[in-house]
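Protein modeling request. Please complete all fields; requests missing the sequence field cannot be processed.
Requester role: graduate student
Desired output: 3D structure, token encoding
Chains: 1
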Amino acid sequence: MQIDYDHAILEHFIPVAYEELCNDLVRHLQLDTSSYLKMAQALRRYYHHRFYDELMQLKTRYRPFNPDSDLISRHTYNTAEYGALKMELVDAVIPLLQRANYEELTQQTLHAAMNKTSPYGVEVSVDFDDFEEILLFFRGEAHRYDEKRHWRSLYLKKERIRVDVYRRLFLLLKPKRLEERAKEIARHQGRDVERVKRTLCKHNVVLLEEEPRERIYMKLFKDIPHADLEMLFPNTRVKMTLKDKLKIGITGGGGTIGGLATFMGKLGTMMDPLSLLAAVGAFGGVLWRQIKTVLTHRTRYMARLAKNLYFYNLDNNIGVVTHLVDMAESEESKEALMAYLFLSQDTPPTDAEALDEAIETYMRETYKVPMNFEVNAGVQKLVELGLVQRNGTGIHAVSIADALIQLNRVNAVSS
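Delivered output (415 residues):
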């Protein structure tokens, strides 16, 4: 299945591996291969050390909420402490996502997706009130083309339809506690809290039951269709499409009415108990077939959702933490590398605007990827490392020899 980036949308993401980007740029800019490859390795080593510390801190923040943890602890947290720890975790995750060039999906976008029908013909509903915290970030908008039969062609031939997708999608969910959610529903609907709790225990697998430990779920997905965002949530409920409701209503209604007419006819003409029992059995069989049809449709929908999520899922919980740190490290390394290499050529750009234009032109012409390079962020990283100097409005890279000395010095300190 081929997926193409949506080039009408300019993004910050650099979809080229660090090593390949480095080799291509050194050749393109006609730089000394040996020296600049050493510099690129030293630069990557610096970011690896820097992000390793961040990885350890983030793992520590996530440990009290990790639903997969098998570790024990003598320390327990009260509600206020859990709330403070949750805010620390969220405040650390959001900047990390931004450095990995993810963008936040707004509530408006999410609710708009709820009103769309999946290209697979699946409709689901989600109760967002079950969650105390929801974060949804994406990176890379793209599209693919599927083939689907349509009523316009009387289902005789397949039509090519465009499906818009998010290449990467991050989801963080913090479920509410069962007691808290039950009180909300009871207050809103004027019902008894205990009855609501019993109902939620039977039908809601998301809410936290009476246990001291809080849980936060983090998920990472790939190639998620815009219209299928709801299927990422654990409390989705499958709904029938209007077409399927009509189909089942017409066929099921006709069969039920026919069975009822047959049953009533036999009831009026046959008083023999065995015959009456047979008529009741026949009518029950007709009703069961219609119920079974509905159940079969719902089962097919659930199987389709499970299959989709099996292939879409990239990582879960603590694995997502490591994944995000790796992506942020890669993106920041590439931004700094590209800025330095372009400033090191024989006729370098003299200011940030010219540097931005040179890098974006290179990406567009070499990799066929239009993008919006974060030039200020790239230059600022080099200034902090001492690899670039500002002179008024101009920017100048230090020599490759001085760059190697400086990177070896900061790497020695960080290690």
